[in-house]
Amino acid sequence: MNTHIANRIERRPFASLGHADHGWLNARHHFSFADYHDEDRMNWGAIRVWNDDEIGPRSGFPPHPHADMEIITYVRTGAITHKDSLGNQGRTEAGDVQVMSAGTGIRHAEYNLEDETTTLFQIWVIPRARGGSPSWGAKPFPRGQRSGKLVVLASGYDEDAEALRIRADARLLGGTIRAGDSVTYDSADGRHLYLVPATGRVSIDGETFEARDGAAIIGGAPITITAIEDAEIVLVDSI
Description:
By secondary structure, the protein is an all-beta fold.
């Protein structure tokens, strides 16, 4: 691995992530969260939390408050059912996404009402401004429609008209790549990318990443993601 790659891309192996097993919840933390604290993993750009959660059947998070955070849930397997203090309720299935702008304050509950374990990524992004009315939304994003490419699923930018809206200088992208195929992603100087293969082994500019490893990437030049195995990619691009 050359010096340019080493300085620009940091691999965070799955085994190095913070870990908390609550029985009903088996969680891995890419960034400092709850009882897991690492000064070198407090945030990456505007990305504050990236939790890799396995939620047991018929269990979940009881009502609890949030404020001043953009919370994105990417469901990998199973489904999650959301209820909040605004009266919103919805069930988000594997491959689909929900977003919540906590704004001035909201209480919500997230339950796995299924008979199987639900796995998901929950990602918190720091908003571009504090306050504002809280909101929630969800949208299906069929995996087949993002084969061989990265599709914007949630975004704080007006040009991403088909994506769910968040109030942050960030976007969430997802895609599936067949073994042997590649996709390229470019970003501007000053951006912070965080990429996780939900499934499958990939290489990023020649460095190998296993499924559920994290890649903290400094923006400003294209990256090439090649699937060594069939892979599902989740990427956040933030300030």
